[in-house]
Amino acid sequence: MSDALAVAAATETLRVVLHEAVGRAVAGTAVTARPPDEAAAGAAGAVLNLFLYRMTVDGVWRNTDPVGTRPGETHRPPLPLVLHYMVTAYATGEDDHSAAHRLLGAAMAAFHDRPVLRPSDIGSAAGFSNLHLQQEPVRITPAVMSTEEMCRLWTALGARYRPSVAYEARVVLIDSSVPGRTPLPVVRRGAEGRGPEAAAATTVGGWPELHALTPAVAAPGADLVLTGRGLDAGQPSVRLTHPLLGGPVVLPARAVHASQVRAALPDDHAAGRWSVVVVLTAPDGSERTTRSRPLDVTPSITGRLPMTAARDGDGTVTLKVGCTPQVHPGQRVELLVGDLPVPAEPVVRPTRSLRIRFRLPHGRPGRYALRLRVDGVDSPLTGTDAEQLDADTAVEVT
Predict the structure, then answer these.
(1) What was the pLDDT predicted at 108?
(2) Does the residue 191 lie in any domain?
(3) Does a structural domain hold residue 248?
(4) Looking at CB atoms within 10 Å, which of 18, 70, 186, 327 has the fewest?
(5) Model-level pTM greater than 0.85?
(6) Are 356 and 384 in the same domain?
(7) Are residues 286 and 308 in the same domain?
């Protein structure tokens, strides 16, 4: 998601995109983001103006649960904004109309060639906001304004009409500042903590199938057992992919028999939600791939536990939390303090050290259980296999 500066970040990124494009069409063009009646004031040459004239709320996103919300958790949904822009060209001299038309053509071509704002573009143009970390891309699409709507807008602005085109940027998601609640989970559910499982009973067309992955929630370095059918039809390997970190990460594997393959996660394997497949390579080099199964790789909080922290003068607590494996830029990281989710400060490079600032729930000091959530996967509450919290082994902060 994004902070409240995301609207300004989107506008500045669009302005930079236009500035890179129109300079080749009309040399020396200034690209501004002002009201139309002020855009060309004092300008010595051509001007292309980007004016944010309206903001609306996206109805679909407004009724969508926040990303990463689990059953039993409550979070305020983000504010989903659609930004409506008007692009206007100004030129002076005898060929002002020709120059204005060239500017508008170049601007429309730039938005046509770049209909989505890339995170790298946003980060370089508007580093003051974290809009570049938003998982949903900001898309730029032409908007249709009737002649009546255009006339009303220019009349309200009190300016003389200039050739203009309208665009919308959808969607900018601004995080709510109201903290949610993340109740403590059941420590163990089902045999070996796996919960219920369902598996297919037949193999279709002789193709290998992956029915189950044990454990489905694992720490880096864990041994994986993959069960299915037809898993001895070639040399097996296990491949993992992540929506942000990419991949695939290829793990050497060994087939125990036709229904079981084993592999081990690396000790530094990144936390988060991964997709796992078994690839069987035949002697002729051809490959057969099973359908994927999800694997949650858990992070861990490191350092001396339980932690102790003091509030400063305004009641804010600052925690420096060590973690393993490394957290990567772009991953969504939260520290769950009791039932309070607190976003970690964004990281610019892979790190094992996180900084978190927050206020205590209701201002009450005490002992709070700690969980580190990376891309929706939580760290364990205890450092042992205990089935209930224990004061000596719990991951807590005082």
Answers:
(1) 94
(2) no
(3) yes
(4) 186
(5) no
(6) yes
(7) no
